[in-house]
Design goal:
By secondary structure, the chain is of the alpha/beta class. It contains 13 helices and 16 strands. 51% of the residues are buried.
Amino acid sequence: MKALVFHGSGESAWENVTDPGIQDATDAIVRVDAVTICGTDLHILKGDLPEVRPGTVLGHEAVGEIVDVGGDVRTVRPGDRVLVSCITTCGRCRYCREGMYGQCRGGGGWILGHLIDGTQAEYVRVPHADLSTYLLPGAVDSKDAVLLADIFPTAYEVGVLNGRVRPADTLVVVGAGPIGLAAIATARLYTPGKIIAVDLAPARLDAAKRLGADAVAAAGEEAEQLVADLTEGLGADVVIEAVGVPASFEACTRMVRPGGHVANVGVHGKPVTLHLEDLWSKNVTITTGLVDTYSTPTLLRMTAAGQLPTSSLVTHTFPLDAMEEAYDVFSRAADTGALKVVLGAPQHDALTVLTP
């Protein structure tokens, strides 16, 4: 089969690899029908996650059809159309029993495209398939469903829920990429008083406004002044960091009010300064987290009911074998306007550009 293989910092290729097979009785093999590229994949290519070994197939989000299962798999069978979660769940270890699936110690957690071969391929092996795949209703399009594998649960759980967004809150989302936009969309479920989006790209700020941001600003002093102006100098109740660079995290800690919450979602590849000399007396709560995907069934039901603007984040679609082109477009988002790119089979003749 063909797959996108990581070959070290800055190097990857769409090439022939061995087809995956059942290794454990809880495995399933999924034929990939739709897959997307995550900002975390770009971090891997930059060398920010050295634990990813050369030779690994990248990707941790997919929709597809079950083609084979191990002897202990009970809830899915060949022919089923499923969502492949970015988090693999053993269901038995201490963390899984507490609902912290991202910290699974039973052979799960974030392993696809990280510690084992991932989803950016024609087929993928999914361990612990009973708890790590979700049956999809026919009414849910693959382009919508694939965004529930990672970005919507991540934005909702690590951003909105960890940040404790409440009615009438002032919320600032720093970074209006896919995660930031999904945070804006899911935060609206809690009717915050104001949502302020911060980003350097005008196209992303426009997308933020379409998804419900009340005000937008470029990063830097402009954003901090806007937050101060809209809160009478108090600061935001909740600030979500959705970029993953030191400057954006430090800006978040300056924009939050005393007693507020900073929810870090961004993947950081460099050390960040925590200014406790300013924060120690302000009762600020800072949370970090890897998504657990406990919210996926709820988000899936909302998508089926038309209550989440999932596919509005998809700006480009490609055939599966255009993986390298899709990476190029996604990595140059400032030039291409890419938010989420979705690749799918059966293959098509040309790139399709969708209006978000």
